[in-house]
Amino acid sequence: MSDSRLAVVVLAAGQGTRMRSSRAKVLHPIAGVPLLGHVLATARELDPAFVVTVVRHQRDAVAEAVDEYLPSSIVVDQDEVPGTGRAVEQAVEALPAGFDGDIVVLSGDVPLLDAVTLSGLLDAHRRALAGATVLSALLADATGYGRVVRDPSGEFERIVEHRDAGDAELGIGEINSGVYAFSVAALRTALPRITSANAQGEKYLTDAIALMRSTGAPVAAVPVAEPWIVEGINDRVQLSEQAARLNAMIVRRWQREGVTVHDPRSTWIDLDVTLAEDVELLPGTRLAGATTVDRFAVIGPDTTLVGCEVGEGASVVRTDATLAVIGAHASVGPFAYLRPGTELGAGGKIGTYVETKNARIGRGSKVPHLSYIGDAEIGEGTNIGAGGITANYDDLAKHRTIIGSHVHTGAHNVFVAPVELGDGSKVGAGAVIRKDVPAGALAISVAPQRNRLGWTEEHRAGTDAASAAAASASGTAAASGSASGTAPGS
Ligand code: UD1
Ligand code: MG
């Protein structure tokens, strides 16, 4: 049941110059979700009647993210008047005229702020019947932030921006986090009256708060327990710091849910990942997208899984996999590369130096060594010999290779697609399969081997090879150094 007296405004119109990026700041991801996605998720947790997201810089891309992460949000385009005050003013205009509740203002670049902290802010705000309640934080280094100026009795007085602050004000350690609760009525009165007369030529939302106070409305600043909760991201240093913090929280959560994580700092888990009890993650593991891992599976070391599904008891070692399904008790790696559309059946194996793509490998089937299997379907209980290659591409189109169940292919086979091998068939080593192989048949495509006896002694007389051959023929062990040192390359 939503809080009909609550609206949330998310500010996401700014450019984020300090990111030095062609991508809008709020679209940079941490834990696989853009900063704005984290903020919208928190907004939704508050269960407000309305969410309004204000956009301008890279408007279409940002609006698309709003549509993905909180489609119910109203999107408002900020006009050419700059500043947080103008952004909130336009957001308020987008709310129904009859809405007379409270507004929580969030910044699109503060991803770790949680709904519990915000509920506390809102409760304090409502209890005090305040015009505005500012979420503040005490920082050792307050550079760049607006400072909270209090009067001698400790009451909130105003916020002064870093660029507008005097020396005494610059010494203040309590900063404005840029997150607030407002009474919409107080905002409707104050916002039209603020101006852009300041160092940045912007309409400052913070000036509206000073104005409320001067008209007698109660205003207050409430510090958060720990400053990182409200830390905004302005550059890529902060981006990595907040990403690491969030990751540490995610890893801890899974540990408490029964996942063994050997090295939390080198283990990266996206927000959308799902892990079962008794999963084991070895160092250097990155689980991204909507990856799911079932019980007793062991992942890593040095493994990246993006949008993969791993079955119970599977083992995935030193592997890079995207959009792949790995069956229960299957084994993958070390050094495997699973591209989208790979499906490995229960108990199957994709081994060392194997690349797969768009390939269904059936229950118990194995591709153990040095292979490329693409656009292929392999039945159950089949073994692909070392070095098996599906030649799926004829430089115009991709073709499929279909290999049945209980097939044994030889070492170093090439399957020139489209081609089909029937159930129970066999292929000799080194064969190039260009024609279908019927069920139960043995396919051999290499020319019969001829041995020309005495070739080395005839053509390589005087070399170590020739004397070794001679010694072998006479049944004597070749004595080292018996050749006269004329071997090529010696
Ligand atoms: C703002 C606060 C400052 C506070 C700091 C916390 C004001 C005047 N100052 O400063 O007191 O310490 O946040 O991080 O509010 N935005 C818009 N439209 C605009 C300008 C900004 O939507 O015209 C959005 C930005 O995308 C961002 C947020 O508002 O999400 C904050 O804007 P930013 O420019 O970072 O404000 P600061 O100067 O950091
Ligand atoms: Mg900022």
Shape: elongated
Q: What amount of the residues lies in strands?
A: 25-35%
Average pLDDT, to the nearest integer?
A: 95
CATH superfamily of the largest domain: Spore Coat Polysaccharide Biosynthesis Protein SpsA, Chain A
The largest sheet, given as strand count, sense and whether it forms a barrel, is: 19 strands, parallel
Radius of gyration: 34 Å
| The CATH C-level class name of the largest domain | Alpha Beta
Compute the number of strand runs.
35
CATH topology of the largest domain: Spore Coat Polysaccharide Biosynthesis Protein SpsA, Chain A
| Helical residue percent band | 10-25%
Give the low-confidence spans: 477-490
CATH architecture of the largest domain, by name, is Alpha-Beta Complex
Continuous helix count: 10
Q: What separation lies between the terminal Cα atoms?
A: 86 Å
Tally of discrete structural domains: 2
Task: Give the structural class.
Answer: alpha/beta
Small molecules bound in the structure, each named once: uridine-diphosphate-N-acetylglucosamine, magnesium ion
